[in-house]
């Protein structure tokens, strides 16, 4: 899902995410990198108990969905990460911390601990965020975990779309797994006055299963078997 995003406005973005969860009626809904704040590298960290996230928790409770949304978070040791939050009817937890941070990101954000798996209804989901998808070490580490699907939130410029597509095919074949990319659409911060969108789902053999266009509010949806 590639929702419209209001810079720095967690409450507005959580409400948009909640509407998307209700509209898609999917078991797992994947959002782009830093989807709850926009790709604003100076955005405040998002506490896991932030009341602004309540509408999204409620939408997940109503639909039985698990939302994977992007946000900056701070650990108990004071380190700040670009993270994927897992949000369901039970609340908000950190699912993954970005491991391969970009040069500008590294001035604020720490590196995560590497590949991890989230289990949902017996499915093993390998998690990733943007630059991770281009790191062969990360792909190999995720493949070694025996994943059924590789799931990532991204933000890319339009001219980077061919690279986004090429990475997905490499990952699908390396992991022998579905690949789900939720790619930012619409303008956001830093160098991303334009973004690629074109979120998509690929089969384990690298064939496209579903795809959106570049515009906001588009959703790529599929039933994985």
Description:
By secondary structure, this protein is of the alpha/beta class. It has one domain: Carbon-nitrogen hydrolase (Nitrilase/N-carbamoyl-D-aminoacid amidohydrolase, 4-Layer Sandwich). The protein has four helices and ten strands. A six-stranded mixed sheet has the order 5-6-7-8-9-10, covered by helices on one side. Helix 1 packs parallel to helix 2 (about 55-65). The radius of gyration is 16 Å and the shape is globular.
Give the helices and strands, then pairings.
Blueprint: H1 10-24, E1 28-30, H2 54-63, E2 66-74, E3 80-88, E4 91-97, E5 117-120, E6 123-129, H3 136-143, E7 149-154, H4 161-175, E8 178-183, E9 200-202, E10 208-211
Parallel strand pairs: 1-2, 6-7, 7-8
Antiparallel strand pairs: 2-3, 3-4, 5-6, 8-9, 9-10
Helix pairs in contact: 1-2
What's the order of the H and E elements?
A: HEHEEEEEHEHEEE
CATH topology: Nitrilase/N-carbamoyl-D-aminoacid amidohydrolase
CATH homologous superfamily (4th level) name = Carbon-nitrogen hydrolase
Spatial separation of the terminal alpha carbons = 20 Å
Which percent band covers the strand fraction? 25-35%
What is the number of independent domains?
Answer: 1
Whole-number average pLDDT? Answer: 97
List low-pLDDT spans: none
How does the helix and strand content classify structurally? alpha/beta
Please compute the radius of gyration using only Cα atoms.
16 Å
Main beta sheet strand tally, sense and closure: 6 strands, mixed
Number of helices: 4
- Kindly state the percentage of residues in helix: 10-25%
């Amino acid at each position: 899902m590639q929702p419209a995003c209001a810079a720095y406005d967690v409450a507005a973005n959580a409400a948009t995410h909640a509407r998307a969860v209700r509209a898609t009626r999917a078991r797992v809904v994947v959002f782009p990198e830093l989807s709850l704040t926009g790709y604003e590298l100076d955005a405040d960290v998002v506490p896991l108990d932030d009341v602004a996230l309540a509408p999204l928790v409620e939408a997940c409770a109503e639909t039985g969905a698990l939302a994977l949304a992007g946000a900056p978070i701070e650990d108990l040791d004071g380190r700040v990460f670009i993270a994927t939050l897992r949000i369901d009817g039970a609340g908000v937890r950190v699912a993954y911390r970005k491991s391969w941070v970009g040069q500008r990101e590294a001035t604020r954000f720490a590196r995560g601990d590497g590949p991890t798996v989230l289990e949902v209804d017996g499915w093993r989901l390998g998690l990733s965020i943007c630059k991770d998808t281009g790191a062969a070490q990360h792909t190999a580490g995720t493949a070694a975990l025996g994943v059924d699907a590789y799931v990532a939130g991204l933000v890319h410029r339009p001219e980077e779309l061919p690279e986004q597509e090429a990475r997905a095919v490499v990952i699908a074949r390396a992991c022998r797994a579905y690949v789900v990319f939720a790619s930012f659409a619409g303008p956001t911060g830093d160098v991303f006055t334009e973004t690629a969108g074109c979120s998509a789902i690929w089969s384990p053999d690298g064939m496209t299963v579903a795809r959106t266009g570049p515009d906001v509010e588009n959703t790529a949806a599929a039933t994985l078997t």
